[in-house]
C-alpha cells in the first residue's frame, strides 16, 4: 500500500467499489487482502457473507470504500432474498463494480446469471478478476478470459490469487485510479465502517462454521447482546448463537460443552488481535425456531426484511 498519502483535500479522490460474485468465489478473502486486515468473514461454507461489509482501503491520494456483498445466487428462502437484494443494492450505489469469478469453477451458471443481470442493468465501469489462477492451467485461463470478454465488455481483466495475494496490488492500484475527485469520507487510518459489536459477532460465526463444518446447517446467526468496557481496558462481550432446533443446539455445545469452549477460545483470540485489547467472551446458545422469518434478526444483520 502506498505511503506518504496526500492530505490536501483538493488532491483527494474517493469512491465506492462493489465486489460481487457467486458464493465462495473469494470475495471476502480478496477484500481482507486489499485492505490489509481481517474485515469480512471467510469460510468454505457458501453464503457466509450476509450483509454488505464496508471496508476502507487507501492507495496514494485515493480512498476506496469497498462493499463486500453477499454472494449472488438464486434465492429460495427469505434470508436468501435479503442477501441477494443487498448485493444488487451495492452494485447500484458503486462507482466501480469488480466481478470476481472462481477460475477453477469457470463460467458456470451462477456467474453467467450475474453477467446477464449486469447487462440488464446496463452497468458500466465493470472490472473482472479471475481468482485462484494458480490452480488452473494457462490454456484454460486464456480460454476463460476470452469467453468472458466476449460475454461482457469489461473495462479490464485481472488474473489473481486472493489467498496468496498475487495480482492484488494491481487491482488496488487500478481501482484507485478510477475513484472520482472528492474528499475522503473516513479518517485515513480507519479500516472499516462496521460496528465492533457486529464484527465481534461475525468473528464468532466464522469460528462456528470452521469448527463444525458440515455438521451444522447454514441457518445459524450470532448476535452480540452486550459489550462492556472494563476499567482495566478489557472488554466483556456476551453473545448468543441462535439455532433453529434443539438438535442443533446440542451440536454447537458439544459433549460436556467442549465444542462451545473451543469456538469461544478461537473467537476470543481473534477478537483480542482485532481489537488490540483483552477480551472476556461469554457464549450462549439459544433455540429460536424460524428465526429466518424474524424481522429483528434481519435488523441485527444489517439486512432489509423482504416481504414474501
Question: Please, could you describe this protein's structure?
Answer:
The protein is α/β, with parallel strands linked by helices. The protein has helices spanning 27-35, 78-93, 109-120, 138-151, 168-177, 196-212, 246-253, 258-275, 295-301; strands spanning 13-21, 53-59, 62-68, 96-102, 126-131, 157-159, 221-229, 235-243, 279-287. Strand 2 and strand 3 (62-68) form a beta hairpin. Helix 6 crosses helix 8. Mean pLDDT is 82; it is low at 1-6 and 43-50.
Strand proportion: 15-25%
Shape: globular
By DSSP, the count of extended strands is 9
Structural class: alpha/beta
Instruction: Identify low-pLDDT runs.
Output: 1-6, 43-50
Helix content: 25-40%
- First CA to last CA: what distance? 45 Å
Question: Topology, pairings included?
Answer:
Elements: E1 13-21, H1 27-35, E2 53-59, E3 62-68, H2 78-93, E4 96-102, H3 109-120, E5 126-131, H4 138-151, E6 157-159, H5 168-177, H6 196-212, E7 221-229, E8 235-243, H7 246-253, H8 258-275, E9 279-287, H9 295-301
Helix pairs in contact: 6-8
Task: List the keywords.
six-stranded mixed beta sheet; 308 residues
Quick take:
This protein has helices at 27-35, 78-93, 109-120, 138-151, 168-177, 196-212, 246-253, 258-275, 295-301, and strands at 13-21, 53-59, 62-68, 96-102, 126-131, 157-159, 221-229, 235-243, 279-287. It is of the alpha/beta class and 308 residues long.
